[in-house]
Amino acid sequence: MTTNAIISVKDLKKNYGEFQAVKGISFDVYEGEIFGLLGPNGAGKTTTLEIIETLREKSSGTVHLAGMDISKNGNAIKQMIGVQLQAAGYYPSLTLVELIKLFSGLYDIETDAMKMLRSVGLEDKAKAKYKELSGGQKQRFSIATTLINKPTIIFLDEPTTGLDPQARRNLWDLIRTIRDNGATVVITTHYMDEAEQLCDRVAVMEAGKIIALDTPDALIDNLIATGFERKKEVKKANLEDVFLSLTGQEWRDE
Ligand code: ATP
Question: Does ligand 1 have an atom closer than 6 angstroms to the CB of 41?
């Protein structure tokens, strides 16, 4: 990870009519990091993400990606980012291989579809249709589709919601691999264990503002420094550890 800002957001505001959903936020995402956007429902995370992805208009402020202004270089920015498609984009009668070929065609690039499926542990499902996949497999497939245009920055909105503990861990590994291969990853999540394990830095949003931004470690240390103590002594394992030790950690045929 570097401290070169690949995304730079300055005084970003978004109004929906009278309602101000994003209230003048500023932050940088560094090249090569996994950056987490956290916060309660309605905090403004998806709005912020979609503005950066050039999918939603901002009301004011500036956003630069790799030095390019989203207001002026939308097309160039779309080429360099990977965004998860909504499930509705996956034509029901096509197989996974056919879908990857279709999306590659849209970007006008050649993709080794089997290699891509292998990288997300779905080579066995190459001839399956999207609707025949389990929740975890759908998520893995949708992450694979974000990689087709070899993006520099990848945006994942709640990538592990609804997944079982193994599937979540496997997706964490996949996201780390994507980062280790040189991409910058921006994710939103409601799971604090996920943010702690996965994110190099996190921004906490509440009611349209950023109320904290740092590494998970530093945020935890700051809280402890205020005298915070957990009420109950924490055991060395929790129920999730029990579940994982009973059912295994590998990718299974979900
Ligand atoms: P969640 O964790 O529930 O996904 P979020 O942090 O992603 O929430 P947003 O989806 O960005 O929050 O919404 C922020 C606020 O803006 C909410 O109060 C929401 O109701 C409002 N909002 C979002 N989209 C619109 C829209 N298209 N029109 C009007 N209000 C909107």
Answer: yes
